[in-house]
Amino acid sequence: MRVYRSFATYVAPSVLAFALSGVYAIVDGFFVGQSVGDAGLSAINVAFPVVSLIQALGTGIGMGGAVLWSVRRGIDGLASARFVRATLWLLLFVSAAMTACFPLAGHVLRLFGAEGAIFSFGEEYLRVILLGAAFQIFATGVVPLIRNAGGAVFAFLTMVSGFAANILLDYLFVWVLEMGTEGAAIATIIGQAVTAIEAIAYLLWKKLPFFGTLRGFGGCAASIARVGIAPFGLTLSPMISLMLINRFCMLYDGGAAVACYACIAYAITIVQMLLQGVGDGSQPLISQYYGEGKPELAEKVKRLAYLCAIALALLCCPLLYALRGFIGPLFGASESVAREVEAVLPVFLIGLLFYGYSRITTANFYATERTAFSYICVYSEPALMLLLLFILPLFFGQAGVWWSAVLAQILTAGISLLLMLVGRGRAVYN
């Protein structure tokens, strides 16, 4: 009974927090789409992989440090403190590097195939995002530390406050002041700043080892990177898919297909974030039991995570299917794009159950430091998608682009199952 209670305590706030993250991702698209139209919506969609990269860097570093801190804390509490300090310094260094990329915004958009009005709106948006990269990186990077310190509810509340600030400011900047995509980006940065400031204040209040010697920083940073590559990839993978699909949509059907997928991506992102919330919410418990040498409890948490993810997928898919006719108009899409969204969305719903399985399996792998398996699970999906995108559209046109994403998710789930079966016969817990 204690495991069930602990699971609910960690996972419920995590799922809610990731649900907010999913809504966070669509807020800019909603306000810009209603204010600017298809061009603005497409611009946000084309620029969003960079936003996701920034958030993935913070998540990867934060999750890598949090996993190692939790595991080592069960072995040597004092020695584990250095992973907290190393995590915070890594977040600072990466923030500086991303901010320095500000002049490259236009080049990146050209690389993604943006042209004309889409390029202009996208550049306005991306320049502001890069200038405020530090707030996004710290907002996403400190939250895993808070969650692993037992502050899952507080982590959720920090995201609620940032989300509320983002919505209010989007309304003010985009609708009232008519600042377009630039106003949406400013609202996003301020919202993330609210979350980052509150999160850092929590660390100081809890007296986590924020300050101290940096002796051994290089070794800690390497270990954090080794574990963090998987959660980094989990966070970035949907946006790699977004970037690939946008590029091939441009080749086969032009801007209308990009606008269609923008609406679809916004809709399914919420469900994908819910599923990732289950995985990340269960991670602190799995890492804790792994570090304490209690494999039976870690296995019980993993089984609960699978059941929770399956239940969420089975609940959300019929709901999205029923609402598919309202999604395009919600984001201000034109009538023709809205009809295409209604027709295409069911294809993407097929992959969500498989997506959930692979995400929970991957979270279990990196929570128990089986990094090689976690890498394979994470990076198989974009690699398979790229391969399929070069093949299926040649025979099926734009429909082949849509099905490439779903088949990649199905194949990745199969790979995850195979790796789980391979690892089952090994002594993987300390």
TrEMBL record:
It is found in: Cell membrane. It is a multi-pass membrane protein. InterPro entries: MATE_fam, MATE_MepA_subfamily. GO terms for molecular function: antiporter activity; xenobiotic transmembrane transporter activity. The chain crosses the membrane at residues 7-27, 47-71, 83-105, 125-146, 153-177, 183-205, 217-236, 256-275, 304-323, 343-360, 372-396, 402-422. One of its GO terms (cellular component) is plasma membrane. This is Multidrug transporter MatE. It comes from the Bacteria. Keywords: Cell membrane, Membrane, Transmembrane, Transmembrane helix. Pfam families: MatE.
